[in-house]
């Protein structure tokens, strides 16, 4: 034993401490059984499912939070704007009903703003704002009528709106219609304008000197342009008639009607077409009948020309009127066109006179006065059957 110890120390060896010991490697765990593997896989899937659900819940909560915050923010802004918005002032208005009398004119095409300002200037309403507000409240912005109205000073704006939107309250405007006769237009012009009828008569008796073109041959018939005219604002009968005739000449130029005697003839033909039928679809055919009968040397045989000279409607013609050979407008007796047009022709009748429909018709009869149905033919026998058809209608109509 000593020898061994001597050898040990001689070899410079020493005892190893616990720290110097190299630990042994742990043995690997035993492999999982199939049951354990299935259980571990199921647990992993369950954990993944829980993570997805938790993520979805978090996303939904985040979205809801954003929406709630947005709604709260919008409401806050709205409430804040309402809190800080200045209180709207009520437009100054008179309590009404007003007093005195104010004649107030509205021209065609005038806007609501201009009308409102003019009402304030005239002392009718207290403020433009009150009138425009009343107009809006009534939904009547586009229903203001042109014309001359009888109002009062210091009226309530809503009362003014009621009057200005009522066509029956409008005055001072002369309406010239297609088919009107000159004598009727001139009489209305005198009445509405307030000018003397004698002033108009003097111009007519002077053959429209300085107003009518030479081809009119001194007659206003056919030379008054349909339309609406503010005659209340005009200062004289001369101004009224000149305005209407000038409008007519401008329209004829625009439609391309030739100048001179040919223009007068076209006005004449168009006026007959305007008077003979009540549907514009027939104008072109009526003009063709007139042209065909003139070319063949036939009388026109138009009741409308006789009605014009006797100042009655065609329905009130008598046999004596229809057989009166002394009447230069009796186209049943006299060939060719009447001495002048027999009324104002509208644009469609004028265009038909300029370019009539093609056809060989010589006769036409309006067989139904309610519908305006008119039949055309070149046969006198067929014409007679149409006349009987009209008489049957007339008999039923009078019986009713």
What does this structure look like?
There is one protein chain. Among the domains are: 99-169, Dna Ligase, domain 1 (2-Layer Sandwich), CATH 3.30.1490.480; 174-255, no CATH class; 261-361, no CATH class. It is mainly alpha-helical and 400 residues long. The protein is elongated. It contains 14 helices and 6 strands. Helix 3 (112-121) packs across helix 4 (128-137), helix 4 crosses helix 5 (157-164) and helix 9 (261-276) crosses helix 13. It has a two-stranded antiparallel ribbon. A two-stranded antiparallel sheet has the order 3-4. Helix content is 49%, strand content 7%.
In brief, what are we looking at here?
With 400 residues, this protein is mostly helical.
How much helix, percentage-wise, in residues?
A: 40-55%
What is the tally of helical segments? 14
Order of helices and strands: HHEHHEHEHHEHHHHHHEEH
The main β sheet shows up as: 2 strands, antiparallel
* Average pLDDT reading: 85
Strand content: 5-15%
- How would you sum up the global shape? elongated
Low-confidence segments, ≥5 residues, pLDDT <50?
13-22, 81-87
What is the CA-based Rg, rounded? 49 Å
Give the tally of β-strands: 6
